[in-house]
Amino acid sequence: MKRLDLIFSERELDAIVKVLESAGVPGYTVMKHATGRGPETIVSEDMEFSGLGANAHVIVFCDDEIINKIRVNVRSILSYYGGVAYVSEATEL
User: What stretches pass through the bilayer (predicted)?
Assistant: First the structure.
């Protein structure tokens, strides 16, 4: 089982969800209003009213086959609009 963490601008949430659902993910968690600091910028809720400052964090648990289906399309969105994605091992309790 893999865990996929995606952090990106909330503006791209619909595009990311479309990629996840077309790949057949069994489910996902969306956390809006994610804030913090990246290597070049600080993301705060101060610009949220304009839709430019808020980030979303999406977590997906799925198998390698689905990660491979997601990889190219998610990478394309994140490289164009910004954001990060990490895959790690996940073990159910």
Answer: none
